[in-house]
């Protein structure tokens, strides 16, 4: 996860793997994930990143972008008295193995999390669980 991804490439291009078209009776979620995989990752909005991340799609490329967005937006959102936590929830609810695979990114996320306050209860629980799962030296 350490090499910065080419933001002009789609997940399909980065992975070198094209998915077949979704079945005609696919759910809107499945259809949306298929569509998002065609778009350049740098053009994805935070809620679209969250959707892909919660589906465990393209984590090695999308998590660094998500942590970057969280690092850049968290102070302003917290200062405003609220935090839009969909992307944060998507990021912190990934399995500990994901973060163990990239200790530098885990350390960066930990720094971002240290500055967040006023989180909703369900996100705060996920943050606490993630922090407990990370090694102390991260």
Explain how this protein is built.
The mean pLDDT is 88. The chain has eight helices and no strands. Helix 3 (46-54) packs across helix 4 (59-79). The chain is globular. With 138 residues, the chain is mainly alpha-helical.
Summing up helix and strand content along with how strands pair, one would put the structural category as mainly alpha
Describe the global form. globular
User: How many helical stretches?
Assistant: 8
**N-to-C series of helices and strands:** HHHHHHHH
Rg on CA atoms, Å: 15 Å
Main sheet makeup:
none
Average pLDDT rating: 88
| Percent helix | 55-70%
The low-pLDDT segments are: none
E-strand count: 0
End-to-end C-alpha gap: 15 Å
* Beta-strand content estimate: under 5%
Observed structural traits:
mainly alpha, 8 helices
Topology readout:
Blueprint: H1 11-15, H2 28-36, H3 46-54, H4 59-79, H5 86-92, H6 96-100, H7 103-114, H8 121-133
Helix pairs in contact: 3-4, 3-5, 4-7
Summarize the structure.
By secondary structure, the chain is an all-alpha fold. The chain has 8 helices and no strands. The longest helix is centred in the middle third of the chain and has 21 residues, at 59-79.
